[in-house]
Amino acid sequence: MSLIVVLNGPNLNLLGSREPSIYGRVTWAEVRERLQHIAEERGVEIEFFQSNHEGAIIDFIQGLSGRANGLIINPGALTHYSYSLHDALMGSEIPAIELHLSNIYAREEWRARSVVSPAARGVIAGLGALGYELAMEAMLGIIEASQG
Fold first, then answer.
1. Is residue 56 part of a domain?
2. Residue 90 sits in a domain of what CATH number?
3. Active-site hit among 80, 100, 105, 132
């Protein structure tokens, strides 16, 4: 059975309450429930991880090698400066989709640059919590295509 991992970086544990005018009012628990439902319908396993600590995220990604078939990652602020996150994703060789709740390209200039994107198969930005569901569907397609 395929395993898809959904990884959230710093401050995403506050989803639904942190700046809801930017990030929406949907909570992380609600997102998890929706994704769990999709996983069950499609016959795949799903695992969730969130940390406010860059090193914990790097360690987690390194531990996925040989275990996960796909990774959906919302790196939060690490998007803009974490070359170590980029390197961990490249080293894992697990297909990754980078996800952002807000449209990082329509916000402050410093947010419009992602050092993570070159290590991702694709990017979804600006669609709020719906982006997680779209990333899940896209990842399922990537996995199915890789399995022939």
1. no
2. 3.40.50.9100
3. 100
For residue 135, count other CB atoms closer than 10 A to its CB.
26
Position 139 pLDDT exceeds 90 = yes
**Which residue from 12, 1, 2 is spatially nearest to 131, judged by alpha carbons?**
12
Count of the separate structural domains present in the chain: 1
- Return the SS3 of 53: coil
- pLDDT tens digits for range 18-51: 766 666 688 899 999 999 999 999 999 999 999 9
Residue 99 lies in a domain: yes
Mode of pairing for the β-strands spanning 70-74 and 3-8:
parallel
Of the residues 23, 53, 83, 105, which is catalytic? 23
Which residue range is the domain that position 26 belongs to? Answer: 3-50+62-104+115-146
Catalytic annotation present for 100: yes
Digit-coded pLDDT (tens) for 60-94? 999 999 999 999 999 999 999 999 999 999 999 99
Dihedrals phi, psi of 136, to nearest 5 degrees: -65, -45
pLDDT value for 104: 87
Residue with tokens 């979804």: 124
